[in-house]
Amino acid sequence: MDPDGRLRETLWRLTQTRRVIEDTGWVTATVGSGWSNVSGNGAAYRKIGSVVYVRGFVSATSATPSSVIFTLPPGWRPSKDIELPCTQTPTFQATGVFIDTSNGNVTVLNFTSAFPAASGVRMCFNYAIDNIQNTSRRNLAAEMEAAVLELHA
Fold it and tell me: What is the pTM of this model?
């Protein structure tokens, strides 16, 4: 049924492939002009597999509506522009951040005037990104399916 051993080899490779999930650990964000990281709880991000996690608290020192909180590096940006919820302090007013995929800039949504003194933004969100590991697994599954189809042809 498998004279050249292709099916057996493909099945063996599939069982030996372990999904390696990379965890970058937390990376402290370099905040933009007008913002400052709150000591011990500043903005940080990490990537585990194909999910990016963002957390932390940034204080508005002289932020304006166009001030970038921080910039995500390539490979950490979502595939589409997204808006994510967060909280404005000290009022605990609901607000959000916008992530621009073209440049990785993270900015505050609906920010129309200067933040009041001693206020800031508390972030805690995550989102999925495309990941080459997923593509590799799909390719291996496609190889296995092709070997099975060839066997039954």
Answer: 0.69
Question: Which CATH code for domain 27-131?
Answer: 2.60.40.1830
Q: How far is CA 70 from the centre of its chain?
A: 14
Which ranges constitute the DSSP H helices of 18-131? none
Which of 98, 45, 43, 122 minimizes the C-alpha distance to 76?
45
Dist CA 71 CA 77 (whole Å)? 9
Q: Which three-class secondary structure state does DSSP give residue 25?
A: coil
* Domain locations in the chain as residue ranges: 27-131
Can you give the pLDDT of all 153 residues of the chain as single tens digits? 566 677 777 766 666 655 567 899 999 999 999 899 998 899 999 999 889 999 999 988 887 777 899 999 999 999 899 998 888 777 656 678 899 999 999 998 876 666 666 678 889 999 998 744 444 455 656 666 666 666 555
Q: Are 27 and 44 in contact (CB under 8 A)?
A: yes
Determine the 3-state secondary structure of 14 from DSSP: helix
